[in-house]
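Many introductory courses stop at the sequence. We go one step further.
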Amino acid sequence: MTAIDLSGKTALVMGGGQGLGAATAEMLAGAGARVVINYFNDVEGVNHQRAEQTAESIGPLAAAMEADVRSPSALTAMFDAIAARFGNIDIVVNNAAILRDRSAKKMSSEEWQSVIDTNLTGVFNVSRLAAERLADGGRIVNLSSISAFEGFFGQANYAAAKAGVAALTRVLARELARRRITVNAVAPGVVLTEMGRSIPEEVRAEMLQSIPLGRFGEPREIAGVILFLCSDLASYVTGQVIHASGGWWV
């Protein structure tokens, strides 16, 4: 069996302090990578605390760094800090996202725009700046969602953003191929993270009937797909959207 070894590589996980981001950071570190855990500095300081806790649980190979994905200047400062501390950067995982669910009829302009700004424009901002700094042969993995393909009620903003991420992934894969940088996306189904558990119980029960495997996903199961895409085993995979949904989307 071929083991995945990311020793000597530096990975940046956007929104890496909790849920799927934390599981991904831990898995990449487990394969030997240095891991930067990005967080958005909310007023309450919860994101900062979670990111620091995740970094502490991983150990000296990890560091928590703040940057708002909506701000190119903040992202530039973060990338400069990564370079100063770790030197190279080899892997970027675009995981930062928010939810503002409401039917299209009732959705405010702010609710629409805030999700687009974070979940789609944020991925573009990070990827554009990362592309200038990634080592040749690097990896970008974006988080799309089953919502982009199923179009769940009340998620016009979220589904549109995540569909945009899938399209952006295909474009970037073409543009960065000459440097052997692969760009792929993972489209999880419902995963038992804080975001997944925020779905009303009756809605989750209905969703469960659509999943052939008969259960929701665990963060580590999605992180495992991300780990594969970050590894040399996936060197000939680019421009793809990998559905990790228990068979919901085939």
